[in-house]
Amino acid sequence: MSRVYNFSAGPAVLPEEVLKEAAAEMLDYKGTGMSVMEMSHRSKAFEEIITEAEQDLRDLMNIPDNYKVLFLQGGASQQFAMIPMNLMKNKVADYIVTGQWAKKAAKEAEKYGKVNVVASSADKTFSYIPDCSDLPISEDADYVYICENNTIYGTKFKTLPNTKGKDLVADVSSCFLSEPVDVTKYAMIYGGVQKNIGPAGVVIAIIREDLITEDVLPGTPTMLTYKTHADAKSLYNTPPAYGIYICGKVFKWLKKMGGLEVMKERNEKKAKVLYDFLDQSKLFKGTVVPEDRSLMNVPFVTGDADLDAKFVKEAKEAGFENLKGHRTVGGMRASIYNAMPYEGVVALVDFMKKFEEENL
Ligand SMILES: *Cc1c(COP(=O)(O)O)cnc(C)c1O
């Protein structure tokens, strides 16, 4: 068996330890004689899995008691609608557009109310984070929305926007659990888990309790109402049970690694290897302004589309998978999530050095 270094933006690399554990428990989960896939979501065994998963996440992120943790389905994209349906009480929201995902979220919200784009970095192909210290926040905005780490463009908010007292909603799909976070600064944090936590099919939403009400837009389906899931502890209907089980294992792995402070240090060390190389390379160049660079997604180019394609092809042959940039931006992108080992990034940089020597 040989595993590649997988730089996919998502679904993405998971800790090998977690995969091995899941494999060992595949046929008989802790003496139940069945796989977690085959188990009732109302069973005692599964109840323990979901309860422990939530508690471990609460420990990792230091989530205050007045926030609910929901395990949902429909992908991060479904939240683009659920957020306005549930939170747009005045039918007004401010969006900061720093990439495709925020743009899509804003577009979806327009179906339900007035959306003000209060800042954008579209003018420079989303290669930076706009100054958000003094935005024209709307008086009657229900919330201010950001995509905290832009998976496609490789930018990250290093400081949160000044929302002037309005509730902040953040899509953290691609930076979930990559560093410590102060949950109290947000009204809602959510993300699809398939980038940095687990298998596709689970969305985790952390929402301040007072926002979870029956006062939703008329016609909002039961399944798209946060209260439904909060009241039923994410067991209103069959949840994505196996995915939640794997997320739970990843939470335990993160705790064992030392928690989010340690992950941040590891992630910084890993990203530095790649960014330092890019900054001195005569062939490769990072596409993001240094101060806004993501620790998770690192886009880079040679400036020549043919050479980019050659690099991606040769990298793949050498065991470095999924380095092709997003279809809307081209070039390359290395996603170096929590589970990507330091050695993987060092090996990639060695390969890039060799490619540079051969092709310059
Ligand atoms: C991948 C991604 C999404 C979309 O996730 P789906 O689960 O496929 O809907 C949304 N936001 C961000 C930041 C992403 O990286």
Automatic annotation (TrEMBL):
Modified residues (N6-(pyridoxal phosphate)lysine): 195
Binding, pyridoxal 5'-phosphate: 76-77, 101, 151, 171, 194, 237-238
Keyword Protease appears in the UniProt entry: no
This protein's UniProt keywords: Amino-acid biosynthesis, Aminotransferase, Cytoplasm, Pyridoxal phosphate, Serine biosynthesis, Transferase
Domain (Aminotransferase class V): residue spans on this chain: 4-348
Protein's gene: serC
Location of this chain's protein in the cell: Cytoplasm
BP GO terms, sorted: L-serine biosynthetic process
Pathway: Amino-acid biosynthesis; L-serine biosynthesis; L-serine from 3-phospho-D-glycerate: step 2/3
Note describing how the cofactor binds: Binds 1 pyridoxal phosphate per subunit.
Cofactor(s) for this UniProt protein: pyridoxal 5'-phosphate
Subunit: Homodimer.
Main localization of the protein described in the UniProt heading: cytoplasm
Originating species: Mediterraneibacter faecis
Catalytic activity: 4-(phosphooxy)-L-threonine + 2-oxoglutarate = (R)-3-hydroxy-2-oxo-4-phosphooxybutanoate + L-glutamate; O-phospho-L-serine + 2-oxoglutarate = 3-phosphooxypyruvate + L-glutamate
Lineage: Bacteria, Bacillati, Bacillota, Clostridia, Lachnospirales
Role of this protein: Catalyzes the reversible conversion of 3-phosphohydroxypyruvate to phosphoserine and of 3-hydroxy-2-oxo-4-phosphonooxybutanoate to phosphohydroxythreonine.
Family, similarity comment: Belongs to the class-V pyridoxal-phosphate-dependent aminotransferase family. SerC subfamily.
EC code(s) of this entry: 2.6.1.52
A GO MF term: O-phospho-L-serine:2-oxoglutarate aminotransferase activity
Name of the featured protein: Phosphoserine aminotransferase
Domain of life of the native organism: Bacteria
GO cellular component: cytoplasm
Residue numbers binding L-glutamate: 42
Signal peptide location: none
Alphabetical list of InterPro entries matching this protein: Aminotrans_V_dom, Pser_aminoTfrase, PyrdxlP-dep_Trfase, PyrdxlP-dep_Trfase_major, PyrdxlP-dep_Trfase_small
